[in-house]
Predict the structure of Lipoprotein YerB.
Amino acid sequence: MTLSRYSSRLISGCVLAAMLLTACGAQEAETVPAPTAAPVPAPLPSPSATAGPSPAAEPAAGLITSGLTGLPLEGGSLPRPLAVMINNAPAARPQSGISEADILYEVLAEGGITRLVGIFQSHTGVVKIGPIRSIRPYLIDIGESYGGVTVHAGGSPAAYAILQKEKKEDMDEIGRAGAYFWRDKERKAPHNLYSNAAKLREGADKLGYAGTAEVPGYLFTDKDAVPAEGEPAAEFNINFLLKSYTVSYKYSSERGTYLRGVNGKPHLDLNNGNPVEAANVIVMGADHKVLDDVGRLQIDIELGGEAVLFQRGQAVKGRWSRKPEDVIRFVKRDGKEAAMYPGVTHILIVPNSPTFSGHMKVSGVPVSN
């Protein structure tokens, strides 16, 4: 289900910086029409972590607990996740539906721009998701690690090679799934492509994809548990490469979440005006390698590395880890998987070059707001 391990882990920080700077401001690469789609070989073992869902308490009668959020839900079962590639260019903001993703990733695409990947499972009635954008090999990997159907519009040549060869279960707007997307006349292309949960699930069913899947779950603690470790972190900023992609998170003690901002402004969901927020934010460092003059990247999301977990106004240093057929997890310094607080989790993947910590600035003591 995941991509093969990269043959080399170390890359030169100066080469990465130089090549990405030359690509900064460039538009995304042209995508090629989609052929067909499908499963990659499982990765080799990575640093260990305790796996499996472990809700803090049994849900009430008639409810089930999400293994991705740790929250109780009505119904007998959860549908297969949708892993949607979401445009994060300035012209694509604010996006629709991202406050209703169970897990939200942010990762570089090329030229210094970032892509969001929303993992949607708990909220089955999201009325509008997007703008939807193209896919990369490591984005296929992220979506499939949750057992999801990957949703995208176009992709890099390397991504299409994987989709074809492995016969992936994906939904591509410029391929055979085009009927399940629409263009919004209020925005200019390519920042105007959308779908919704109902259309995507209908399309997945028509394409013969399974409606349920085995989804790895996280460990969870009680929502009222007091953090036993970490340092005060009321606010932190993440800089990927470009100034137009500076992300901030500010802790709200009243909500028990970190409220996300972009370029100094609150990041809101266009669907409902709700803040984009997370009970858990993982910032992780990964090796990035520039592959061509367009700035396309190879990103190692298998071998593990430095990471910081932000919860309840505290920052805990540790490592990220990933086993074969599993999702990315945060492992504390004692080697045990950290328990998440019930709610949404955001995972931000930044380059290890020139240093992991150089992409992050943490400050302050939590205050009520």
